[in-house]
Amino acid sequence: MRETDFVSGFAKGLKVIEAFGETRQRLTIAEASKLTGLDRATVRRSLLTLSELGYAVYDGKFFTLTPKVLRLGHAYLAATPLPIIIQPHLDLLSERAGQNASASVLDGTEVVYIARASQRRVMSINLTPGSRLPAFCASMGRVLLSALPESEARAVLERTDLKANTPNTKTDPEELMAEFRRVRGQGYAVIDQELEIGLCSIAVPVENDRGQTVAAINIGAPAAYVAAAEMTERFLPLLKETQKALRLVLP
Amino acid sequence: MRETDFVSGFAKGLKVIEAFGETRQRLTIAEASKLTGLDRATVRRSLLTLSELGYAVYDGKFFTLTPKVLRLGHAYLAATPLPIIIQPHLDLLSERAGQNASASVLDGTEVVYIARASQRRVMSINLTPGSRLPAFCASMGRVLLSALPESEARAVLERTDLKANTPNTKTDPEELMAEFRRVRGQGYAVIDQELEIGLCSIAVPVENDRGQTVAAINIGAPAAYVAAAEMTERFLPLLKETQKALRLVLP
DNA sequence: CTCATTTTGTGCGATATATGAACAAATGTC
DNA sequence: GACATTTGTTCATATATCGCACAAAATGAG
């Protein structure tokens, strides 16, 4: 791509929008400038543009994003059939399991939730479409990484900050690679409180009719309610059934 | 605002992102150009910028958004405490009602879903955070419009395309204004298949401790399962309870 | 209240972008 | 397979943006 095929004003504006997610809902020009590393004058123009378009409001001191920015993310959810096709299956799965069910795809080193059906409140984590978790220690992340060629999975791990969220978190790259091979072989991944103490989950890949993994679905349950060892017998059949139904309807 | 305080390259890029939501997941440069009304060369530069930043991928023919664009919408969801505070209450409400519960805010003439808890699949509508419905014929929309000064509510109606979704849809502005007054008086809104045949819903405002309406929550149920007349006695107490709990925790 | 510090707003030259036409490549039609 | 159409890309140049430096305003400490 040539230098002149890049619209830096657009790129800078997107960076400004993302600056809001990292901290508070209200940002001053100077704060946004610090967060993005962009010049104050540039940030100011971007924020005024957002206000002019209705994506933000300005009270003379603070800028605040409006719900209109959801249109941007929703452009993906609405344009991609995946979340829309998966949602009803997820609702049914969640109802039958009596636990929360979610679907996600891989974006770099993270899993991104694209749909969720809730039965009971999750632990401390609040997950909505668009939420992100590190892939290496999430059940759906394990499944999605297992679907990659080994070299790519290893490359993702190398780019990941492998910090332990709980004493259970596996952080050794070789141990994780071995885990990916096991997951690939058995067709599912179980996480026993590696992300958060008290939370277990089990995930399977969602494949299209050509056998390509396009997403992952999971069921999460409190460890106090379902021990990790029971996850497989209680939920794997339900997950497999959903997986099978999806294989027939996905393009 | 001065002319030079507007970054048109940024505004055009945002328009390009939104073009995806309206149609398909894959757009060619020419298609995006038609949808946005922007010059092909300009659209191409925006799309190449998106690809360079990882918000889109280009296969030489089609551009496709990646899950990374969810970060943009998520900047709002993550930065705004509202969805995060409401979600657990919604989960509980949905579980106790045995029906779907949702929360939304007003954006112009539309309600935007900011959270949802599902128990059973909805009718034909698939709603996720970021989904939009016309405010005038949705229960949460009625509640949110009722909270506005009459002149503003009327102004919104004037800007709205008041088309009937079903034979039940109220489309007369005066009838709607009268309905808003009734809703304001009784503190809740009931919709009987005005949005979709077979779907009833009831909504109440979510107020902060200063009495300002900051969102609305609702319960939707199939008309075959719960007649409109029963909605109030079955679900209003649960909604009121959630409303009361939220009033204490909202800033 | 005053001074120091921080934050916001503005003018300007250097630099980057948008535009529309022209061309090349691909696609569709008969 | 030849023609007509659509699409993608490039280019020159008029125009708009960027980031700096400075001015103005707000904030805060003493």
- Uncertain ranges of chain A: none
Strand tally of chain A: 9
What assembly state would you assign to the polypeptide chains in this entry?
Answer: homodimer
Radius of gyration of chain A: 20 Å
Lateral arrangement of strands in the main beta sheet of chain A:
6-5-4-9-8-7
Class of the largest domain in chain A, according to the CATH hierarchy?
Alpha Beta
Largest sheet of chain A, described in full? Answer: 6 strands, antiparallel
Mean pLDDT of chain A: 90
CATH architecture annotation name of the largest domain in chain A: 2-Layer Sandwich
Briefly note the structural class of the backbone of chain A: alpha+beta
Shape of chain A: globular
SSE sequence of chain A, one letter per element: HEHHEEHHEEEHHHEEEH
Kindly give the count of domains of chain A: 2
Termini of chain A, distance in Å? 31 Å
**Helix residue percentage of chain A:** 40-55%
CATH homologous superfamily classification of the largest domain in chain A: GAF domain
